[in-house]
Write a structure and sequence with these properties.
single chain, 24% strand, binds S-adenosylmethionine, alpha/beta, Rossmann fold, seven-stranded mixed beta sheet, 7 helices
Length: 204
Amino acid sequence: MQGTAVQRFYRYHAYVYDSTRWMILHGRRGAVERMKLRPDSNVLEIGCGTGLNFRYVLDRLDPSAGRLVGLDFSADMLERSRRRTAAHGWSNVELVQADAEKLDLGRDFDAVFFAYSLTMIPDWESALRRAYAHLRPGGRLVVLDFSTFGGWGPLAPVMRTWLKLNHVLTRRPYLDRMREVCGEVDVYHWLGGYNFTAVGRRND
Ligand SMILES: C[S@@+](CC[C@H](N)C(=O)[O-])C[C@H]1O[C@@H](n2cnc3c(N)ncnc32)[C@H](O)[C@@H]1O
């Protein structure tokens, strides 16, 4: 079978993603709020999966002025996004199949969003740098993802191991690297280090 381990993983998980992930993937609405979108914003979601964040973004956009690009390298997950977009009649959503590590869309965005995707990307540092390069000056880079479960005592390694078995690596220096890329970064932790939302800005 072709593709990376994560693409193969989502070939099957795409079928059960929406019915299972609501239990574990939290903080979508709050993270979208931190993008500070305007009705005419252009937004890129990297690793958009089945499009579960789309409605939170689109609620803030004027359909005739603002635009959302959902990008994923899994054809199976993108197909779910495509169906969701068609079912809602969202006319200002564009779906792109591409690898975040090699991102090069030739345009820039007011906000770039990773939701529970950065921790699954092997060369996440390239993905982060390329995401930043796709921001217009003043644009926001928002990352929502699992943290290290620092306040979970003996359950912390259990959670981290379980996530690792699902291709999610929690202990890489996401926030340090984000600070190197963006400069100042605001970080919000939730539930004893269950997840974090980090917000950086393009400053040049
Ligand atoms: C846990 S899902 C998150 C989906 C969605 N953002 C959400 O909040 O429900 C992770 C997504 O990242 C995508 N992904 C992982 N590595 C990627 C890469 N290198 N390039 C593009 N997408 C990637 C996967 O295919 C998957 O759809």
